[in-house]
Amino acid sequence: LIYNPETYITNKESAMFFAEKGLRSITLAKEITLDDICAIALKTGVKADILAHGPVNMFHSKRMLITNYFRHFNSDSPESFRNKALSITEEMRLGKYPLIEDDSGTHIFSPYDLCTVNYLDVLIENNVSSLRIDGMFKTFRQLYDITAVYRKALDDYFADKENYLIKRSEYLRELAEIENIRPFNTGFLLKKTIY
Length: 195
Hints:
It is built from seven helices and eight strands. By secondary structure, it is of the alpha/beta class. Strands 1, 2, 3, 4, 5, 6, 7 and 8 form an eight-stranded mixed beta sheet that branches. Strand 4 (about 85-90) and strand 5 (about 95-100) form a beta hairpin.
């Protein structure tokens, strides 16, 4: 069994709870730091899966907020937006936040993709056993190119860790040069979420 809620497992105790229930692999939340990811993966013995590259969902509502917005303005077909690329912007921050509405509700994503290519050594050495690349907001070609960069980085790491460490800026450059790629950053890897 694999438990993949993508948001709930944020600490060692949660991971151990699911391990005791017989789960062999868990997906860790995208909103925790690299130190927390490593501590959970290393200390629990459960196979840990993380999002290695891709969009981070920042907001979810079960309500059909976009449909209701268009209905408020008396749109003839409020559902016609569903196949369009929608986004919102904030006055105080740069970037467009992609919006999606589906049968589960409304989702707002970060304007940046999470990128972990420079931390693969730390993740591997701390028992993270599965890395995912999310294809949302990407063409097939972009997804292929992103995957190729990560594959090369992993191969370099396993062949010669020092070579991987030397080439980290090269991996970032290759990712940045992918045509029409979404901007990326380290998300919450290096900063704690404080409420």
